[in-house]
Structure formats: structure tokens, C-alpha cells
Amino acid sequence: MEQRYKVDYPAIARRVKEARRRAGLTQEQLAEQIDISANAVAKLENNLMNASLQTLVNIANALQLDMNDLLGVQARGGERDPFLEGLLADLSPKDRDFLVYVINGLKLYR
To answer: Please, which pLDDT band fits residue 21 given cuts at 50, 70 and 90?
Structure first.
């Protein structure tokens, strides 16, 4: 059986750390929001501990992340563009939502 998905815990850990920093939160602040210890957040971010699915959902909600982005799941099997990802990484969640709105508007007028 072909394996469609593989859990890349080091990449998830890296994305959690990056998103937390972009949100301007400390490990302690994130831990408080998702009801786990700051030590657990540190271990998760340093890939010393794997988070449960519920913890990942809580992190995504707290940091306003899409679960697909957090897990690194590619929609429609397409390749990711590093240039675009770099541009998007610098945007706030609110700005990303606005960009999606603009792109959807452009698609209507093609």
C-alpha cells in the first residue's frame, strides 16, 4: 500500500516554534493558552516530545494556523513554492486572510 502521508515531527516542531514567534508569544504564554506546561511546549518545539492530535489542534487554534499548514499537508498534491512560502511567512494571519480574499476575487474575474 502506498503511503500518502508521513508525520514529519521535526518539521511540525519547527513550524510551531516559527508560528509562536510570529504571533509574538513566549512558550509560557502559548502553554497557558493551550493548557499544557511551558516545559511541554519547549520539548515539543525542540522535537523532544511528540504532541497529541488534540494538542496540535489547540496550538493551531491558539496561533490561528490552518492544520494543513501546521502538519505540512499539501493540498491537491501540489508542490510548495519556497518563494511564496517565504512571502506568506512574514504576513500576519489577518493579512493572509485578506490575501486569500483578494485572490478569490481575482479568480472570479478570469
So the answer is: very high
In the predicted structure, residue 32 carries a pLDDT above the cut 90: yes
Could you give the number of structural domains in the chain? 2
Instruction: State the pLDDT at residue 78.
Output: 57
- The amino acid sitting at 43 is K
What number of other Cβ atoms are within 10 A of residue 16's Cβ?
Answer: 24
- Sign (positive or negative) of CA dihedral 28, 30, 36, 41: negative
**Residue matched to cell numbers 518539521:** 11
Domain that residue 95 falls in = 82-110
What is this structure's pTM?
A: 0.65
Instruction: Check whether residue 45 and residue 93 sit in a common domain.
Output: no
